[in-house]
Design brief:
This protein is an alpha/beta fold. It is built from ten helices and six strands; from the N terminus they run ααβαβαβαααβαβαβα.
């Protein structure tokens, strides 16, 4: 039995993004923000997230400039790193995470926290002007905000998409409300995830590389 379905990858790709753009009103966003919003909607299949996306002024442009200049991308988990695809853009930015650091388990135990959060202080040497993508752990986002408020270097942008029922909504609202202001893109509420954080990085990478609009 042969099922009748679309198989051509290029056509599927094109129609997917055409559908997103047809179903949402992007007029409230800058051109750069709209590109990120489309990728995020495509990653989760939910046009209804549009009204819950928050971008601080100039954050996406700053993140794109940072990637174009070779800044690293810091990730809270391996799934975010695995979802980042720079090949088509020609960019070669380092994608960094420290979950395999030999001291991390001890740091997490000593701090009574998650390994994702315990790695955040290890970002300091790479953090200034970096793009930070958090798609899993609210504790990592909370810890990052604490670090910045305590004087850690300011990244170019924080892409805050932790997911879950404990701390996810609160951590993202804290990011939006943080003083000093932290350049950010986020999805308020419980929804998020590694695929969305990676999608945000991929969209910004396309902007940085000057790729044509989807």
């Amino acid at each position: 039995m042969r099922l009748d379905y679309l198989k051509d990858p290029a056509t599927i790709y094109r129609l997917s993004f055409e559908t997103v753009r047809r179903e949402v009103d992007l007029s409230g966003f800058t051109a750069e923000e709209a590109e990120v919003a489309v990728r995020l909607i495509h990653a989760c299949g939910m046009p209804e997230i549009l009204g819950h996306l928050k971008f601080s002024a100039g954050a996406i442009a700053a993140a794109a400039a940072a990637l174009a200049a070779g800044a690293p991308v810091l990730c809270d988990c391996r799934m975010v790193a695995a979802g980042i695809s720079l090949g088509a853009t020609g960019l070669t930015n380092p994608i960094l995470g420290f979950l395999d650091h030999p001291e991390l388990a001890g740091r997490a135990k000593a701090g009574n926290t998650t390994r994702s959060a315990a790695q955040v202080p290890l970002w300091r040497d790479h953090q200034a002007g970096a793009v930070i993508a958090i798609g899993n752990a609210p504790t990592a986002l909370f810890r990052l905000i604490e670090e910045i408020q305590a004087g850690a270097p300011m990244p170019a942008a924080v892409l805050g998409f932790p997911v879950g029922f404990v701390g996810a909504a609160e951590s993202k609202q804290t990011l939006v409300d943080a003083t000093p202001e932290i350049p950010h893109a986020t999805l308020l509420g419980r929804r998020g995830g590694s695929a969305m954080a990676a999608a945000a990085v991929n969209a910004i990478a396309r902007i940085a590389a000057g790729s044509d609009q989807i």
